[in-house]
Each structure stands twice: as C-alpha cells, then as structure tokens.
C-alpha cells in the first residue's frame, strides 16, 4: 500500500477520535517509528506524516459537529456547529467546513512558494510576537458590543470579556506550566472544560434532534481568504498556535456558517504553511512539522503543496460521504442521553490520560466556560487559555 494512502487512513482515524490533538497524534507517529521503519523508508514515513496532518485538519470537524468534543483547532467552532445541528442544518455545517478546508489548501499553494522566496524577511518577524498577541487580545475583546444598552453597557461587556480571557489565560498558563514535562497534553481537559462542557450541559435539556436537511452549503470567498491569511499570519510567529489562528479568522458579524468556514480554512492553511516555514527557515511551528523533520531533510520536499491539495480533496470527499449516514444515525438518538454519554466519555478519558489533576483542570475550565453564558459574552474569549501562555513564553 502506498504511503499516501496509509497517511490518509491515519489522518481519518485521528480526525474521528474525539478530542485528539494533532501534536498528540504526531507524538504517536514518532513513538511508533520503529514499527513503521520495518515497512517504510524515511521518505515514505515523512509523506505519511504530512498527508495525515492535512487529512486530520479536514476530518476533525466531524466529532465537533456530532459530539461537541474539541481539540485546539475546532474548539471555537463547536457552538456554531451545535446551533446548526439544533436547527436541522448539521450537514450544512459539515459541507461548509469541508469545502472551506479544500479551497484553503488550493489558495495556500501559491502562498507556500511565496514564503519560500521571502525567507530573509521572515526572520525579522519573530521579535514582534508579543505585540501581535497583544493585538489579538484587543481584537477579541472588541468583539463585544451592546447596541441596545448604550456605551456603558458595551464597555461592561468588554470588561466581562477581559475577565473571561484573563481567567482562562491564567488557568492555561498554570496548566501548561505544571504539565510541561508530561507525555500527555493537558489541552484535552483544558479545552474540553472551556468549550465542550457548556455545550454538553445545554444539550442535556434537549429531548430530540430535529430532522436534518441534507442539502449542501458553500462558503463565502471572503471567509476562506480570511482563514488563509490567519493561517499565514500565525505560521510566521513562534509561540502562536493554531488555536490563535482560528480565533483570528472569525469576525464580529460572522454567522454560524461564516464562523465555521473561517475556522476550517484557517486550520488547513496553518497545517500546510507550517511546513513552508520549516523548509524556508528550518523552524518548527507544529508537532507534525517536528515529526516530519525527524525523518527527512525538509528542503527536498518542494512538492508538498500539491500533495496537500490532493489530500484535502480526498479528505473533503470522505468527510461529506461519511457524514450522511453518520448524521442519519445521530438524529435517531436523544440529545440528553448523547450529552450525558459524551460527558462520561470525557471524564473517563481525562482521568485515564491526566489523572485527578486533569479532572481538576476540566472542572475549573468548565466553570470559566459556563461563566460566558451567565455574563452574556462570546466563548471565543476562552482562547485566552492559549494566547496568554504564548504571550508570556
């Protein structure tokens, strides 16, 4: 079997497993390298890693839509996707995401080669990282507005947003610092508490999933372009993760479909352009890029963008085809039971991977996530859990 097909299958499996992080997946690839080496050479293993990372960036929308369990890439897409499911438009969420990811791969192709040519200029970008992150923080807080409540009400909501951002940032900083030597990422309980837990609680009061419309929806060009620019922007600066790319890609006036399109486009663009930075500057911006560079010399892989487009197309086709029977099965279930089952799954998984410390992080993160409902601010401010640690480090 060709390595591209193996990589595609690995990416599909990783994308369908709720809550798995791409860096965790890359670590598993590295850990099993001695097994892979018995069947593949280093070149083929590197191709498998690249293809699986692009495939993963497309397929991981499925658990976000079906069960609401996030990873860093899909965390802020959960609530819009959940709303679409409850309005009978779950398939539209999947198709918008899939088309956005594929078109993002196409648009990232020329950007990839521009980054290779602009490597001398890129070296000057790294010192600007703290300023960029401060700008991202201001951008996210400025989302909050209250046109019916006057300017005082608007600034009160922005203060609430800043409090949520700070609280999640402090928790993220503490968690990442305390677990920095752990073999298992603490992002799973952290992001599950911030984003999945409030969604699961609201799902527990729903008695039925409405009949789903199986029509397709297409993303707007502007949202795809915005996602590609965000993915490019984040790939340029060290310490800024894909989670920040997704936060940057959304706009104040985006509806659910725009939100999902921007996030999905940013995820795939960031996954691809991280390898452009690896080839041009020799700098690692993701776990997949690090695993890739372990096996081969990256500068020999100038054909990667074309492979990315092919991988994204195959992943798009799989995601759409797989989602049709999956949604049919999903809508036969009772949302309250699904939410309870997913919550139990999360608790068991977190305890198995992180022990009681992981449960504590999940509980604290859950409180912060729920506070956004009571304060009436957007849950995107919980991305402070990723942005604040990146600002400090």
> Given the helix and strand composition, which structural class is it?
mainly alpha
Percent strand equals: under 5%
Average of the residue pLDDT scores: 79
Sheet having the most strands: none
Number of helices: 18
Distance between the termini: 43 Å
**Strand count:** 0
Helix content: over 70%
Structurally, the number of domains stands at 1
The ordered H/E elements are: HHHHHHHHHHHHHHHHHH
Q: How would you sum up the global shape?
A: globular
In the predicted model, the low-confidence regions spanning at least 5 consecutive residues are none
Backbone CA Rg: 20 Å
For the structure shown, list the relevant keywords.
393 residues; single chain; mainly alpha; globular
Give the gist of this structure.
The protein has 393 residues and is mainly alpha-helical. It has helices at residues 3-16, 22-31, 33-36, 42-59, 61-66, 78-86, 90-117, 119-122, 129-141, 150-178, 187-203, 221-236, 242-249, 256-281, 287-295, 304-330, 335-375, 384-392.
Description:
The protein is mostly helical and 393 residues long. The protein has one domain (3-392). The protein is 73% helix and 0% strand. It is built from 18 helices and no strands. The protein is globular, with a radius of gyration of 20 Å.
Chain-wise SSE layout:
Blueprint: H1 3-16, H2 22-31, H3 33-36, H4 42-59, H5 61-66, H6 78-86, H7 90-117, H8 119-122, H9 129-141, H10 150-178, H11 187-203, H12 221-236, H13 242-249, H14 256-281, H15 287-295, H16 304-330, H17 335-375, H18 384-392
